[in-house]
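Hey L., structure's done. Input below.
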Amino acid sequence: MVIVDKTSVGPFLRLHPADTVMVARTAVAAGTRLPDIDLTVLTDVPAGHKIAATDIASGQVITKYNTVIGFAKTDIARGTHVHDHNMEFRDFARDYAFGRDYQPIALLPEHQRATFNGIVRADGRVATRNYIGVVSTVNCSATVVKRIADWFTPERLAAFPGVDGVIPLTHVLGCSMEMTGEPMDLLRRTLAGYIRHPNLAAVVLVGLGCERNQITELLTAEGLQAGQRLRTLVMQELGGTRKSVEAGIAAVTALLPEANRVTRQPVAVRHLTIGLQCGGSDGFSSITANPALGAAVDILTRHGGTAILSETPEIYGVEHTLTRRAVTPAVGEALLERVLWWKNDYSAGRDVQINGRVSPGNNAGGLANIIEKSLGSSMKGGTGPLMAVYRYAQPVTATGLVFMDTPGYDPVSATGQVAGGANLIAFTTGRGSCFGAKPAPSLKLATNTPMYQRLEEDMDVNCGEILDGTATIDSMGQTIFERLLAVASGEATKSESLGIGDNEFVPWQIGILG
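Output:
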């Protein structure tokens, strides 16, 4: 999607000359005059919300960025607040034009490409962090996993400055679920993605012993082998909770000296894979942080890096802007197949956002429905070609912009991206999502200055400067790219400084429990 220059009209922004609505930069009171266009605001309009820029007849399309975001429920007079009280969600025909607009990435010459200081593993993969992970096969071993990880306080790790921490990776699954098929495959693929992740120097895998997700079957299914980097413990064989905690502490202690023997060195940006997330979105997301992150992604991919766009329900309604840029028709068709599965199979008849309703926070921030939210969400991927489509937690092997099928729930979505190989997360937010992920550091991008100032302890970059007029989308994209390189080189993010990330490992619970 091409972002045209926005035009200021008093306290409003017109995002495209053909739009039927404008967006309020600040709260605007009824009676406010806009002499430049001879318009009087008829109703109070909260910041981030829309006003009718023209009379809109009942049933007529409502457009933002010259893209359909809904239909008028009734006649809407020019100057009226436009939101879900007078705009309705409907499906509409879209031209998917698979691959029609594909243009290859204009890669920079090798000598011009950026580098960052990464940790090169023995197999050549590159880490941005250096953790030891303690992983549960089943919820029944989650307490033991947490107690093992909790034992390794900063004081106890002080002798190992090269290790960023010992992290628990627990979940609610692993038993009373289907023994075979997609739910178990998905869980095992997710666990294996973390076990293999370059940001984990070593892993201790803890099972109960009688669960359906048996350690031996997990290792066999995913082609993993226990050894120096992967230790396994079974609670029922070790004698219970206390003895398992002791055995886990001993296992991690034995792994620390080798994990500590790391150094950072300059490596090419092609070793960066960034998971793109947005949560707590608002009416400014599509104006500031999301297109700015998209500009950073365009820079990243020209330098040879990879970005993972996800949250399938949050591209619904604008998926045709991605299918048109697909490297092949098959890639575009794969994306559409995932969208239709969500719409027609997985979510049919359910009160979820792909069927129209967004969260209360999104709604209060100015987003009336999922299509309007998707309009902003898709911008995180930039303007380059779509190179591949992956199922949840599949290993990402393509470079450039790719798509991974995930839910819109941020912890679940980010978990799939990290399992697929993301070694950084870039997370935009308008309402103020306080998110972090381990072992992949998360850079938080605020859409507006008031929220950034209110939650500055959690936010890394203030993209509200675009709205304030002190930065452009392109300049902010460059700022984000440079911050990503700094974080990849070891600079701590705000969420890392706050210790966030121990509870954000949430594999997709897709199957039936019984």
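The longest strand covers residues 200-207. The longest helix spans residues 241-260.

-- N.
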